[in-house]
# Entry
Amino acid sequence: MLNTSIKGALILMLLLVFNCKESKVEITQVQLLKEGEIVLNDNQDRVANIMEGLQVTENGHAYGIDFITKLPFILSLKSGDVKFLSSKGRGPKELLQPVQLVLKDDKELYVYDSALDKIAHFVNDEIVDKLPGYSRDNIWLRNSYGFYFNNHLITAFIDPTMINTDKLNYEEARSLAFYNLADSTTNKRGRLSPTLDKLDSYGKYPLMAMDDKEEVIYYVFSMDHTVMKYDIKRDSSWVVGTYKPEKIRTRSLKVDYRKAPTLQSAKKYGLDITRLVGIEIIDDELLIVWQNAQPEFYDQRNSSNKLRDYFGILYDLDDFNQVAELSLPGKFLGTYENTIMIEENENLDTYTIGFYKIANIDTTKIDLEIN
# Structure
């Protein structure tokens, strides 16, 4: 016979499962309305590449990493002026291969250099110190940005001891790294999504959005749709959103790491996946953006972002049953003052960023599928 407490727990679990399956998701179709734009000033330092995930301060300064020039930069979203931070080299004030940027505030930031395995501490746009990197803790960083919280750097990563070509230990693997600036130690936190494919180790890392006031992190894996939530105080993570847009491709091909990559294999794998390109908190909503490469992207050997389809959803942070779908007119760069930043002109001579607001169109209700 089961005791009363176990019976009660079983009944509660059954009720939760039943209620989840019967819940309704309210889907709102939204569009973006352009409010303005900024053209980069080509009289300043010229960036060769602007990636998704620009980190923006309250005074309108956007920080990012140019992976072609191999330098971090600061971009004014008001004037269009661009300035590189640091110079290339191995010296105390130089960087060799910057791959990730963490913005603390308007004056301080941290940049991880993977070639030197050092974290450069910038104050007023100059390097003042370098700290030990992540490699000693088996941390393979992913994404071009992280977050600062309570004297820690929070970044997404792949744990090669748990996720590699020979092992997929989803239960023990973690996906968020907390680097303590006081003693340069790192803790691994944040469980993996239950809907990640089990094909191989490819793409098993998340993108993150942080709510500083609530002290939580929302994260979605690079080829997944499930939204995970990590509570810093409780040191626990769980699923909060499972809506899957129809455009998301279900990955089916296992990557063969033994074969050299070719244009044909790139097209085969590229058209088999949907890639997550951004996750941001805007107003009281969680914005998630994906992109699908089109066949012409490979057939024409054209890297233009116009041959990619950008789309996304908005979750109401107070009610994850409230979902909005949207299409984006170009490459998603991040958010600024409750607007969405879109790359509008890829030409480096007249590189243009558009600022878009969100507007509602229509509302319907559908059944939510629990994966």
In short: Confidence is low (pLDDT under 50) at residues 4-22. The two ends are 33 Å apart (CA to CA). The helical segments are 4-22, 263-270, 295-299.
